[in-house]
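Hey,
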Amino acid sequence: MTDSLPLSWTIRRFIWDSMFILIFKGKKVLPIPVPTETKPLLQPVAMVVKEPAIGVRNIQVADRIPEDEYSAKMHYAYALRQWMYKYYPANQPDLPGINPDIDVALKDAFNDRYQAIYPNKPKKPVELFGPGGPDLGGMALNSPYACFLQRDGADLVWDFSDLKDHELNPGLEPVDCRVIFAPDPANAGTVRAVRIDCALGQITPDSPHWPRAKAIAMCAASTQVSMVRHFNWVHLACGGHFAIVTRNRMPPDHPICRLVWPHMYGTQNSNFLVTKGQMLPRGEFESIFSFTHQGMCDLFERTHLKYRISVIVPELDWEDRRLSGMNLVSPVQQNLVELYDVMHAHAARYIDQYYPTDADLRADGVVINWLAGLEAAIPNGVERVSGPITAADLTKAGLARLIGGLIYMAAVQHEALGSVMWNYQLWVDRNPVRVYTDQRRLPVDIYQRLLNANFNLNVRRAKLAQDFSDMGLDATGAALFRQFQAELLALDKRYDDPAYPHNAAPWLIRPSAIDANINA
């Protein structure tokens, strides 16, 4: 049983839960308007300039929120939240751990007040709850953490060495580690974990420390998804710059602006608000995961520079992780490829309509200027996806691959690394967000804050599979947007069929669930 909780925590929790419930209930699905000109242009500034309390100097963010994205209601709500973080924080020291029965702990945190407005209780992934779970080999191919598997020399690995040497909150194990996998001879196309290199040493499955080493590995994966892959890479390294450059370098009546606008609109508003909630002192990242505020800032600076644009094209990402030709069976990868293919086909059709030949495309200085802006702003550039972006070498195929990837980044990656984590991070007995040196259970306040953070990721937003025909510059352009919607819904129907083998998988991303863009 959970130890007795003080009245002060009961009151604190009620107040904070009420705030998140009000935010959830008050979030309305806002329409995505047709583009308008952004004046004055957005100016990229260092994050530390925009938010001095966040000591991150090498990440550029917009100097302001464009007028067409600004919501006074949302900003007042977040301002109140920040004031409370400072003067009445959501965490309370010295509280007991959660109930040892994770189902009871979840029921305590995800109570009737939440379920009345969001009845979707987290699913239990079989890879976490099967015999001997968590099954790291299963997680490496059949979970959101499949994005981490790569080949390093002769080894298949999860490499979380980026998490090393960042300041930790007191009493926590370091979470930097490497998990080494090998093909599972009993099941073709699958892998099994054979060693974990971590603070405990080089730990193998026959070691008594194996369960604890697995906890460290799962904690590292959870941390890397939320802090690095989701917020640092999707929101900041790619999404933020995609939106800034598009507003600054694309006239609102340009066909490419109309194509990408639904997928970058709202990004600056979202990034501004979420940065405050997650990265300011006493924010979510510091209060939930292993690192202190300074450790978090150092991690963001370190990993931001390692962004690679190939992650926005699943097959290219697979190739860059050196997994091609290994005959691995990853239904997660197949799901991502199928989603990307719909987005790529949409981009290619649209580009064909407005640019009959490569020469026509190369003659469009606006597109060349836009691509040059993306190449300069996004860490390590975009040419790994687009190919050469000069007026002499740009191709329609390269542009379609990049734009398909940008839509995929804003919609699919944002979903896979954000909302989908509702089904993974709350099972902290199998997928911890902290590993304590004295092996205590996660305190109830941190667990509640973890639930609230994930709950907030599931607010209602504008969906991808809607009719964007109003973005069309002409009747043909409008028809192309409707065709995109039809193809998304056709794929959705396939996934909803009970005969589809992964119909109930908690990692499965259905087109109907995907948001159109990065939005708070």
